[in-house]
Write a structure and sequence with these properties.
The chain has 458 residues and is α/β, with parallel strands linked by helices. It has 19 helices and 16 strands. α16 (387-394) crosses α17.
Length: 458
């Protein structure tokens, strides 16, 4: 069975009515939407009013020629494909049309199968261009700093730094605890820079064995070592004209620090086993959860490399220092995974805000995924939160009152819920026994269990 032809709007331009009629009938049978114009001026008027995916135009026409129409299309509708019709296969006009950007040309007399194939290929090329453009736009929007989640003052400072540094060529050092989103910042810089249409190559320096790291970064020549059966391009070569992101740069061995410094200074590198220096044009963004200044002072990281990397420093705040962003992050997660916002109970929100989040945003996403699977897709309650989040409040029972105060109702609710769970666990979910342990009536424990969504069957 033949593949279905791509859909499209086609404009046929020719001063011969019979040719317009033949092409219209044939193309409509293929499922295309076809309009016609008897001359170039009419075609220009139609193009000003509506869009076409493809134009099939004769080159030789009175008043406005096909070549003049092609120039008009390239200026006013550059995404529209054009196929030119000529009477002679050696016509200089056909060659000129190809130079001006025509997709192809057809010589008279032509075969219907030939027309069908060229039209299909032209529309497939246009569809591919549109798909690539859409993908680039989606990537740019996805990693645009304007779409990163967070309204807190620390994040506003991050956005401002990204907007200032993205258009430049400067090296950037992104620092922050694990899970704070360092690679997301690197991608935001890349996709808002002039290099956005070129590769973004992430490298985890701590995940590649030291014996393979040089070959991975700079490539190798055939026979450079046992098993090197052919030449291989390194990741710096792959990232040429784009951005290379070196994550966990603090794990880079001393021997590789020297080689990386040379690349940054000379803008060239040498493959393992090679004798020729190869030029490279990359923007370097590095990231670490270590204090590189301390690492430098203690001799574990080269001072000259540190200063080369630290041209622009973007520190990312841990989640516990921007807790006001947690509700936004939660809704963003549910919008992405469930397609809607989510309701959060007051008690659950208080626990989420008070939890210190040692794993930062990555840990928050794990907790939310758990709630989405085990709880309701519409709401988040205390019952779907993992023990470490629920127990965090209870762990502060004997501490002093915080300087900025405390939401007593939410705090006591979290403790009450935890004690109810412990009573149920000790009584094997027998509510009458759990009520006895907590010195309350059966009616009272039933009410409290329902309040926290902890109803159990005896």
């Amino acid at each position: 069975m033949a593949d279905k032809a791509p859909s499209g709007r086609i404009l046929v331009v020719d001063d011969e009515a019979s040719l317009r009629e033949v092409l219209t009938i044939m193309l409509q049978r293929e499922g295309y939407d076809v309009e016609t114009a008897a001359d170039g001026a009419t075609a220009q008027a139609l193009l000003r009013e509506s869009d076409f995916d493809l134009i099939i135009s004769d080159i030789k026409m009175p008043k406005i020629t096909g070549l003049e129409l092609l120039r008009f299309v390239r200026e006013h509708a550059p995404e529209t494909m054009m196929i030119m019709i000529t009477a002679f296969s050696t016509s200089e006009d056909a060659v000129e049309a190809m130079k001006l950007g025509a997709f192809d040309y057809i010589t008279k007399p032509f075969r219907n199968d030939e027309i069908r194939l060229i039209v299909r290929n032209a529309l497939e090329r246009r569809a591919l261009r549109q798909e690539n453009q859409t993908l680039r736009q989606e990537l740019s929007q996805r990693y645009s700093f304007a779409n990163m989640v967070g309204k807190s003052e620390p994040m506003q400072q991050v956005y401002e730094l990204i907007s200032k540094v993205a258009p430049s060529k400067a090296n950037v050092l992104v620092t922050g605890e694990s899970g704070t989103g360092k690679e997301l910042v690197a991608k935001a810089i890349h996709f808002n820079s002039p290099r956005r249409d070129h590769p973004f190559v992430p490298v985890n320096c701590g995940a590649i064995p030291e014996t393979l790291l040089e070959s991975e970064l700079f490539g190798h020549e055939k026979g450079a070592f046992t098993g090197a059966s052919g030449q291989k391009a390194g990741l710096f070569e792959v990232a040429n004209s784009g951005t290379i992101f070196l994550d966990e740069i603090g794990e880079l061995p001393a021997s590789m620090q020297v080689k990386l410094l040379r690349v940054l200074q000379e803008r060239e590198f040498r493959r393992v086993g090679g004798t020729k220096d190869l030029p490279v044009d990359v923007r370097l963004i590095a990231a670490t959860n270590k204090d590189l200044a301390t690492e430098t002072k203690e001799g574990r990281f080269r001072e000259d490399l540190y200063y080369r990397l630290n041209v622009i420093h973007i520190p990312l705040p841990p989640l516990r220092e921007r807790s006001e962003d947690i509700p936004l992050l939660i809704n963003h997660f549910y919008q992405s995974h469930a397609g809607h916002d989510v309701k959060i109970s007051d008690a659950a929100l208080r626990l989420l805000l008070d939890y210190p989040w040692p794993g930062n945003i990555r840990e928050l996403h794990n907790v939310l995924e758990r709630c989405l699977v085990l709880g309701s897709a519409e709401s988040i309650g205390v019952d779907c939160l993992p023990p470490q989040v629920r127990d965090a409040a209870a762990g502060t029972l004997l501490h002093d009152l915080p300087e900025d105060g405390l939401d007593l109702d939410a705090y006591l609710a979290a403790i009450e819920r935890e004690l109810l769970l412990k009573a149920l666990e000790r009584s094997n979910n027998v509510r009458t026994r759990a009520a006895e342990l907590l010195k309350m009536s059966f009616r009272s424990i039933r009410y409290r269990l329902a309040k926290f969504g902890l109803d159990v069957d005896e």
